[in-house]
Amino acid sequence: MCRHLAYVGPALPLGELVSAPEHSLFRQSWAPRHQRYGTVNADGFGLGWYAPGDPVPARYRRAGPIWADPSFGDLARVVRSTALLAAVRDATAAGADPEAAVAPYADGPWLFSHNGAVAGWPESLAKPAASLEPLALLELESRCDAALVWALVRDRLRRGEGPGDALGGAVRAVAAAAPGSRLNLLLTDGRSIAATTWGDTLFHRPGPAGGRVVASEPYDDEPGWRAVPDRTLLLADAREVTLLPLKEPSA
């Protein structure tokens, strides 16, 4: 499993969301409070954020635990952004890919993260993978399950689907091929956030300076956090949140 978080709203230092709160993503790397599978998220971490005037996000990713990176504190303290996606990773299975397997994945303006695991990986996703063009598979940064799920989402985005349809369609395709998978997905283009709940927790709340936060679990005990029901598609921007039910895949 993993823990992840996305934010859109007024510019903030990255650390105000990722490391400063009492139960921040930083702390969730070793002491998550709502994680249902796994206990330590020490197989890497990553942040993606947007600079003014540039729609293509920057990323900072490492293969080791977030607490072991001495550069992270300075970066989180001084870098400000109006949008970010951050994640701490607990790998589904051992693999040779280091930081290439760490979220966020990126394509154009998009940042993506997968909190969960694909059941029966990799054999279970042979059919969905076969629906992709060979180039889409060759472009994969990593051979882990999250990277293949991202390829399915990215393919839909490139074909013109909106973020909600892209996430919902990919979730149903993977769930049909690999029943029992956990597929909490998170996606942003720097202006809005789309997410799914499929087997694990997700919460949202107004951001500390306005805006919107969507996270695997609350980073503090302040009021305002709202749990998202399982099997739900969340669509949000800085002002509002829409929740839509996700249908089970057809038999």
TrEMBL record:
Keyword tags: Glutamine amidotransferase, Hydrolase
SUPFAM superfamilies membership: N-terminal nucleophile aminohydrolases (Ntn hydrolases)
Catalytic activity, as annotated: gamma-L-glutamyl-hercynylcysteine S-oxide + H2O = S-(hercyn-2-yl)-L-cysteine S-oxide + L-glutamate
A GO molecular function held by the record: hydrolase activity, acting on carbon-nitrogen (but not peptide) bonds, in linear amides
Uppermost EC category: hydrolase
A Gene Ontology BP annotation from the UniProt entry: ergothioneine biosynthetic process
Source organism, top-level taxon: Bacteria
E.C. numbers: 3.5.1.118
Annotated pathway: Amino-acid biosynthesis; ergothioneine biosynthesis
Known role: Catalyzes the hydrolysis of the gamma-glutamyl amide bond of hercynyl-gamma-L-glutamyl-L-cysteine sulfoxide to produce hercynylcysteine sulfoxide, a step in the biosynthesis pathway of ergothioneine.
HAMAP family in the cross-refs: EgtC
Name of the featured protein: Gamma-glutamyl-hercynylcysteine sulfoxide hydrolase
Taxonomic lineage: Bacteria, Bacillati, Actinomycetota, Actinomycetes, Kitasatosporales
